[in-house]
Amino acid sequence: QCKECEKTFSQNRIELTRHMMTHSGEKPFQCRECQKAFTRNSELTHHMMTHNGEKPYYCSQCGEGFSQKKTLKYHVMAHSGENPYQCKECEKAFSCNSDITRHMLTHSGKKPFQCRECEKAFTRNSELTRHMMAHSGEKP
Questions:
Q1: pTM check: above 0.90
Q2: Domain for residue 118, yes or no?
Q3: Which InterPro entries has this protein been placed in (predicted)?
Q4: What's the pLDDT band for 111 if we cut at 50, 70, 90?
């Protein structure tokens, strides 16, 4: 059982260990291409598909390809207009949980991604990454 949130993992101690990383923020699996880090190696493996262009999952309605099965699932939900995640603040609806989580930051004003060089903060890691390119002179 997790001491932080009391979630129970009856069968597998490895799952508890991985779950604990969500509380500690530990992400030991890092992408060599963009330095994005993950708690699980399988997440890194799926992420690497975004760099090599591999898209094994295709939408039967429009033919668009995706590197991850769950991304295809959310895409198909968008075709059907299915948006099960609704914001309690403004009632805007989203097809996937990560989108509403990111959206909620607009209401809270939280900007968890902070630049180490100038202290500017962002709601998305991708915004911070783009900002860091300005410091290094790298072009996006």
A1: no
A2: yes
A3: Znf_C2H2_sf (IPR036236), Znf_C2H2_type (IPR013087)
A4: confident
Number of domains in the chain: 2
Convert the pLDDT of each residue in 36-84 to its tens digit: 888 888 889 888 888 888 899 999 999 999 988 888 988 898 888 888 8
Q: Do the bridges between strand 65-66 and strand 85-86 make them parallel or antiparallel, or are there none, so unpaired?
A: unpaired
Q: Token match 């001491």: residue? A: 3
Q: Which domain holds residue 136?
A: 110-140
H/E/C letters for each residue in 48-90?
HHHHHCCCCEECCCCCCEECCHHHHHHHHHHHHCCCCEECCCC
Tokens of 10: 């009856």
Residue 99: both structure tokens together: 């989108």
Structural tokens at position 43? 């997440």
What CATH number is attached to the domain comprising 68?
3.30.160.60
Question: Is 84 domain-assigned?
Answer: yes
